[in-house]
Design a protein that fits this description.
Elements lengths: L3 H22 L1 H13 L3 H6 L2 H9 L4 H8 L1 H20 L4 H15 L2 H12 L3 H30 L1 H22 L6 H5 L8 E2 L2 H33 L6 H26 L4 H21 L2 H29 L5 H13 L5 H38 L1 E2 L7
Antiparallel strand pairs: 1-2
Helix pairs in contact: 1-6, 1-8, 1-9, 1-10, 2-9, 4-7, 4-16, 5-6, 5-16, 6-7, 6-8, 6-10, 8-16, 9-10, 9-13, 9-15, 12-13, 12-15, 12-16, 12-17, 13-15, 14-15, 14-17
Length: 396
Amino acid sequence: MPSPAHSTRVIAFVNVAHALDHYVLLIYPTAVIAMAGDLRLDYGPLIALATGAFVAFGLFALPMGWLAVRFGRRNLLAVFFFGCSASLAGLSFSATPTAIAVWLFVLGAFTAIYHPIGASILVSHASSLGRALGWNGVFGNVGTAFAAGGTALLASAFGWRAAFLVPAAVCLAVGLAYVALAPADDQRDERRAPAPASGGFRLSLPVLLTLFGAALVAGGMTFNITSIALPKAVDERLGVAVPLVVTGWLVTGVFLFGALTQLVVGRLVDRFPLPTIFVGLSALQPLGLGIAAATEGAPMLAGLALTIAAIYGQVVVNDAMVARYTPPHLRTKAYSVRYFLGFTVSGFAATLIGATHSSGGFGMTFAIAAAFGAVIFGVAIAFFLAARPAAPAPAE
């Protein structure tokens, strides 16, 4: 078993990696606002270039569980840091839509490493599952939040190329520190570890997999549509003209609000059945997206804040489900499948945003996202009904 000091150090790097993963993947949706003027292209065609990045983000998650067995989780996480650094540097020097699309795809492939590998490392070192997942979620949410504000600040002060180049340097520095300070973890012990408790529930495996898969696909769509569209939606539908920096920091505030939810949900995971928490969170997604679709200004911001809080809270629940219902030695592969399902189809969210924004504005975009949210709510109800308390063990 790893020592507490070792586990603390590893978890710290995993949390920082989560922040960087979401930050670097969401630089482009804010930077594109400045890039459109510089490249003399419309927002719709430019945002659609991100499709490759978000498809790769899900697609390349699938083989990570198998690669981890061959090359080790620590080595793959190091590749994540260095690969993101190189991809961002490439984006900073891009001058054509083709080059931007290629480097975005490469960036998506490297960012795909984090979730299956990072989540697996995290749960193997966590002493309290819900608390660890909650704090890890906060780091990811902070990365998402500051992607908008940080990118807007760098792009306004130094140009959009700096918005990619500065994070490239940060990823390189953190990667070097990780290689120097985080020793390799031994996955062999996980084969002998007992499966974690299921939280007092017995589930039919086919039902669980079917429901969970549907929730992951629909949840990935609400996640990506909301995250990608948020900067431009605030810029366009706030109701008052504000500088890019203000837009960026308003978006940051919305994502930081979501971080509070992840801490709360992390606590709930350690105390209540997962299906019950799932139902409560899933009800908030179509509600918030419906408000955002029908309103502008402050009510729209409130609806999007509610949506982001629910989405990020559900991320904690989804990861907890994998941790509790999967044997330890299969977790990395299970997380690979989980993120493959969640992010591959949803990678087309950027294309969907471009098409719906061009034809019906963000009202149509958020209405479609609300429909995906309604699917998640239906799945959560079915999941709750399919779960049944385990029969008590007979007295000896």
